[in-house]
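Recall the central idea of this unit: under ordinary conditions, the amino acid sequence of a chain determines the structure it adopts. In this exercise we apply that idea directly, starting from the sequence alone.
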Amino acid sequence: AGEEETKLKKIAGKEFEWEDSALSLSQLRELEVFLQRKCEESSSDKINWYTITTVELQNLAKDFMPEGSATYPECVNEKPVKPNYILCAGWDLKLKEAFEAIEWHAKALQLSDRVTYFIHSFCTLSHDGDRLDTGTSKAVIDSTTDGAVLLMDKKLSTAWLDGKMSLASCYELYLFEEKGIRLDFSCSDGIMAITQPFPDRRWEMGTFDPDIA
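Accordingly, the structure predicted from this sequence is:
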């Protein structure tokens, strides 16, 4: 019974479509604190807050997600939530760096904590992981109202420079351009505007690593 009490519970009345599975900035901040605590409580020496990646998050999810395919948004949102922004990240991006990059985006665009984001690794997170393989659908991008953010690190940037950009990433960038929404590159140390400047007319904030740019 004690173990069951530590697990989240589904509060949504139905299974959300991906385009209805966004999380607010305040919810992402709460998730960051929650995941950091879960990493510290984990008995596995392989789970460390400073090194765990988005793909490794699925292993940690079994400790707190309810049995079955219910997703994290279905445990914190009673009703569907559309995304203002879509966040695209590599599966091996460190969780800590992902949250830091999100904060840079919110700061640069002067966003409130009510702004909503869709990020695949968080918004499709479940106990079983059986809904993870659907990928970021075109429906999510079509439903995104304000912009897209690529969460970058040196590993992903190097892969792109070596011509190893995934077909999924190429397709997403094509859809972003076709939709005409703003695009930004963000990392753990700063953010760079790509298609239009930030509200204060700057194109860069923080110390965006030149090796990533």
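The radius of gyration is 17 Å.
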